[in-house]
Design brief:
The chain is an alpha/beta fold. It contains 14 helices and 15 strands. It binds 6-O-phosphono-beta-D-glucopyranose. The site of 6-O-phosphono-beta-D-glucopyranose (BG6) has 6 residues, from α9. Keywords: Carbohydrate metabolism, Glucose metabolism, NADP, Oxidoreductase.
Length: 482
């Protein structure tokens, strides 16, 4: 068997994403012994840095109590090249550095080589960097993989333009579009839960499920990130991507196999069955400061333009129009500066048609994605003891209790491992992306053209007044919500 030589180039190595996610994830894989035996990691950015300042910078990305030997070992496989993002000579130098690194790994003619280009960069330079890579670095004799991350455009048209430009440079199977929610433990668990247990799939349809609620809540506001956020708003920032991706996995039919294209085919099918979301099915909010002045409002953030009408909260009710789901409302909700940090999927079952026990509360299956992974089923039991009353209880699989010894990896670590393995299952295919934009683009355009004013809600609250009533009204019946 031929040995594999792997080179990972992190573009934007001095930026925020590289610091917070890419390098820590690579380091985690290194510590776990999961990087291929012969791997080199090259950072690329504009900042001129000597080796010393580069290594102390990378070291600063890691936790204080990290064993120094681990850091040292990791740094030994890391290098750095400084260069501009549009200068051919700089990319030629990068190419030479890659060659040198491969020689340092004792390259032999028969070795299989993998080049991974991780663009931890703003999308405005994707195409220019992609073009430079394609012309001056890309090597047709090895496997090339390009990793990019949202925002992929800001509507259907701009996303298509970006896809077209990128597909002129790389083949679809060379492209890995990150949606980091697909790397989260509980999101990856949905497939197993649904298709490896006999009882879930049996009730996973409109005959038994009343509604599905997918909720993303953050307890903090933009906090200085308003410049980026204001251009996008909550719908583009988390709904069109993270929430819709999760929805498509909850809703999809069983794939033919676990091959990535089979999975992505099924997810895309779901998205195709969702009509564009209507403004009347959408509630928008924007947070204001707390009454006591302790927390600022969105517009108090200096990085947010005065008079901004960008939503920091949105709730939409949508339908998946196929035989499995017809008539079942899906309520997706996302907001910043709310009362808690939580990402949760709640599958609420229909009322129990039963004369024996009237007026029962509904069963509910809850998949908690964060902060603490958990699966629980709200189940009615007889109150233990001498009582014959019924009580709502839970079949509870909380990971921190059941899997105490397992350290749940960061989403980026699992996704980079997938890239190393050439597995696309947890990455967004171009047709999925296109469908996701199709669903939201008319709404986004209407919000802009009608200058829809978001409803105010107080920082730290549950959202604008009337969110639950709104969902009830749009869904056509009362949803139990929390
Ligand atoms: C990002 C959004 O994609 O996801 C952020 O741009 C958001 O606004 C973040 O805070 C949430 O990710 P996580 O992993 O912290 O839930």
């Amino acid at each position: 068997k031929h040995d594999v030589l792997t080179t990972i180039v992190v573009f934007g190595a001095s930026g925020d994403l590289a610091k917070k996610k890419t390098y820590p994830a690579l380091f985690h894989l290194y510590q776990q012994g999961l990087l291929p035996r012969r791997t080199r990691i090259l950072g690329y950015a504009r900042t001129q840095m000597e080796r010393d300042s580069f290594t102390s910078r990378v070291t600063s990305f890691f936790k204080k109590d990290t064993p120094p030997a681990d850091i040292e070992g990791f740094l030994a496989i890391c290098g750095y090249v400084s260069g501009k993002y549009d200068v051919a000579e700089d990319f030629i130098r990068l190419r030479e550095e890659i060659d040198q690194q491969e020689h340092a790994m004792a390259k032999r003619a028969e070795d299989e080589r993998v080049h991974i280009y991780y663009l931890a960069l703003p999308p405005s330079v994707f195409v220019s960097v992609g073009t430079q890579i394609r012309t001056n670095v890309y090597d047709g004799s090895c496997t090339n993989r390009v990793v990019i991350e949202k925002p992929f455009g800001h509507d259907l048209e701009s996303s298509r333009k970006l896809s077209k430009d990128i597909s002129a440079l790389f083949a679809e199977d060379e492209i890995y579009r990150i949606d980091h929610y697909l790397g989260k433990e509980m999101v990856k668990n949905i497939l197993a839960l649904r298709f490896a247990n006999v009882f879930y799939e049996a009730v996973w349809n409109r005959h038994y499920i009343s509604n599905v609620q997918i909720t993303f809540k953050e307890p903090f506001g933009t906090e200085g990130r308003g410049g980026y956020f204001d251009e996008f708003g909550i719908i583009r920032d988390v709904m069109q991507n993270h929430l819709l991706q999760v929805l498509s996995i909850v809703a999809m039919h069983q794939p033919q196999s676990l091959r990535s294209e089979d999975i992505r085919d099924r997810k895309t099918e779901v998205l195709r069955r969702i009509l564009p979301i209507q403004l009347e099915d959408t509630l928008l909010g924007q947070y204001v400061g707390t009454r006591d002045g302790s927390k600022p409002g969105y517009k108090d953030d200096d990085t947010v333009p005065k008079g901004s009408m960008t939503p920091t909260f949105a709730q939409c009710v949508l339908h998946v129009d196929n035989d499995r789901w017809r008539g079942v409302p899906w309520v997706i909700k996302a907001g910043k500066a709310l009362d808690e940090a939580k990402m949760v999927i709640r599958i609420q079952f229909k009322d129990m048609p039963n004369a024996l026990f009237p007026n029962l509360a509904r069963n509910e299956l809850v998949l908690q994605v964060s902060p603490k992974e958990a699966v629980y089923i709200k189940t009615i039991v007889k109150e233990p003891g001498l009582s014959t009353n019924l009580a709502m209880s839970e079949l509870d699989l909380s990971y921190h209790k059941r899997y105490q010894d397992v350290k749940i990896p960061d989403a980026y670590a699992t996704l980079i491992l997938d890239v190393l393995n050439g597995d696309h299952s947890n990455f967004v295919r171009s047709d999925e992306l296109d469908e996701a934009w199709r669903i939201f683009t008319p709404l986004l355009h209407q919000i802009d053209s009608d200058q829809v004013i978001p409803l105010p809600y107080e920082y730290g609250s549950r959202g604008p007044k009337g969110v639950d009533e709104f969902a009830t009204e749009r869904a056509g019946y009362k949803l139990t919500s929390r």
